[in-house]
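STRUCTURE:
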């Protein structure tokens, strides 16, 4: 494990250095990512400012959900961005290049095109700090919420990675998975930026079972912010993330076994 982590650090650093050769593109994409996230949260803030709450969720609570998910996504996309782009590797034959390297294929894929999501991290941290400060002042949370939040963010990052890995692994059978990724990653993640309770029951069930992305922020927040359901809801987040990650690794390995090189 230590050797694999060392290899990942070396490969990720090399990938980052290559991207930094085009400094304007790097900083422009970083700034645009931050602007997009600011606009998304501003829309939510405007709605809550007008109506006061959404299904009983205040601006601070909804902002907490949004910030936690933003940070989890930033960690996932920083450490394993190209897992989301496996279709390109399958179609172009670039996966063959990774097969020739004396390192695990998944590790090699994760270290491609590394880019730090600085804008998303800063925006997520800012919203999180502001919202938690208000929740502290209202007596809704205590200082124990800080370490709990760290666990939620990290387990959320693992959960998003696991969902991305499961979807990407289906590419070994389906090849074209962009539309599927739009549903399992983009649409599902966008949905849980808001309280899941605002959606119809069938959609709530989907976000809790079929695509359990709600465990990245909504489920543990029910206990942390509202004291609902007991500490089991907080524990459920890392447990579900670990189970999905194990399933993702299993499906990935089976997919690699059936992969046929393009011969290029």
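SEQUENCE:
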């Amino acid at each position: 494990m230590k050797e694999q982590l060392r290899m990942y650090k070396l490969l990720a650093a090399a990938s980052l250095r290559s991207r930094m050769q085009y400094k304007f593109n790097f900083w422009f994409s970083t700034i645009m990512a931050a602007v997009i996230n600011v606009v998304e949260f501003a829309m939510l803030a405007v709605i809550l400012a007008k109506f006061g709450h959404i299904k009983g969720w205040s601006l601070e609570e909804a902002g907490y959900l949004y910030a936690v998910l933003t940070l989890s996504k930033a960690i996932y996309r920083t450490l394993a961005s190209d897992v989301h782009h496996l279709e390109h590797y399958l179609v172009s034959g670039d996966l063959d290049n990774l097969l020739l390297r004396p390192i695990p294929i998944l590790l090699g894929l994760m270290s491609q095109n590394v880019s730090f999501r600085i804008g998303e991290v800063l925006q997520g941290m800012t919203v999180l700090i502001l919202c938690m400060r208000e929740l502290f002042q209202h007596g809704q949370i205590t200082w124990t919420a800080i370490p709990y939040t760290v666990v939620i963010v990290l387990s959320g990052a693992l959960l998003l990675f696991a969902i991305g890995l499961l979807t990407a692994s289906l590419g070994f059978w389906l090849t074209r998975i962009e539309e599927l990724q739009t549903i399992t990653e983009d649409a599902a993640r966008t949905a849980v930026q808001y309280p899941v309770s605002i959606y119809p029951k069938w959609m709530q069930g989907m976000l809790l079972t079929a695509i359990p992305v709600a465990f990245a922020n909504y489920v543990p927040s029910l206990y942390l912010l509202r004291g609902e359901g007991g500490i089991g809801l907080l524990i459920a987040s890392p447990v579900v993330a670990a189970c999905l990650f194990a399933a993702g690794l299993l499906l990935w390995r089976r997919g690699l076994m059936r992969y046929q090189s393009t011969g290029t």
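REMARK: Residues 23-51 form the longest helix (29 residues).
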